[in-house]
Amino acid sequence: MRETKTGIDSSMSRRAFLASAAAGTAGIAAAGILAGCSSGSGANGAKEDNDRDGRAEEGDAKKTDAVAAPDVFTDGIYLTKAVSMHGPINVKTVIADGKIAEVAVLNNRESYVIGEAAVKAMPQRIVESQFVDVDCVTGATLTSMAIRNAVREAIGNAGGDARDFEGYVAPELQKSDVSKECDVAIMGAGMAGLMAAWQLAEDGKNVIVFEKMPYVGGCLPITSTAWNAQETIIQKAWGPEQIFEGWNTMQAQLDQYLNGRIEPDSPYYNPDMPFIKPMFEAVRDATDKMINIGVGFCPISDWPAPQLAPGAFSIGGKFCLDIITNYLTYQLGVNIITEAPVTKLVMDGDAVRGLVAEGADGTTYNVSSKAVLLASGGYAYNKDLMKQYQPDDLKFTIMAPPWATGEGMLMGQDVGAALVAMDQGVTSHYSGAVSNAEISYIHYVCPGVVVNGNGSRFVSESLEYKQALRQFKEQDSTDFYWVFDEISRQGMVPSGNSYRLDYTFLLETGDATEGENYRDLAEKLGLPELVASLDAVNACVANGTEDEFGNVKLRTMLVDGPMYAIKVTPTPYIAQGGLMIDPACHVQREDGSPIKGLYAAGDVTGSVENRDGAMYRVGLTQAIGYGLIAGRTMSAEV
Ligand SMILES: Cc1cc2nc3c(=O)[nH]c(=O)nc-3n(C[C@H](O)[C@H](O)[C@H](O)COP(=O)(O)OP(=O)(O)OC[C@H]3O[C@@H](n4cnc5c(N)ncnc54)[C@H](O)[C@@H]3O)c2cc1C
Question: How many domains does the chain have?
Answer without folding.
Answer: 3
